[in-house]
Amino acid sequence: MSGSPFPTKARIREIFTSLAEGDVPAFYTHIADDVEWTVVGSHHLCGKYAGKAAVASAMAPINAELERPIKLHVTGIIGGEVEEWAVIELVAEAKCKNGTPYNNTYSWSTRWKDDKIVEARAYMDGVLINRIWEENQSRSSSGARLGDIRFLLDNNGESGNLNKQM
Prior knowledge:
By secondary structure, the protein is an alpha+beta fold. 30% of the residues lie in helices and 30% in strands.
């Protein structure tokens, strides 16, 4: 890190390298345990997730529908350096088990502290998320489907889900 308490663009790219390699657990070491993560939109993954474990649980069903771990490639970074907020633009490289390409695009507005993401607002193609959800109804290893996870999060207060029309 530089003399700033916030990561440089180079450091952010370094942190996100693990996502480009499909190593999600390595990336999660750079997310604060008490992160506040909001997935914006009106699709099956939208909602507010409190804590790293809630974020991982919420993303597990879509990841279970993929042939192999998703790879996210950074296409742009705005901010960081001397600013606590940085916007990271990403593109996904993945394929669903049914053969459907999952090439979503993302914009994550991230707030950093001590080299970790402490708050994020994620924007993505919700139409693609919903299509993947509808076309891929297979069970994950935990036996949960996207709709099951959404129901659990909505009913135990861990998610402020924005999409109530399922």
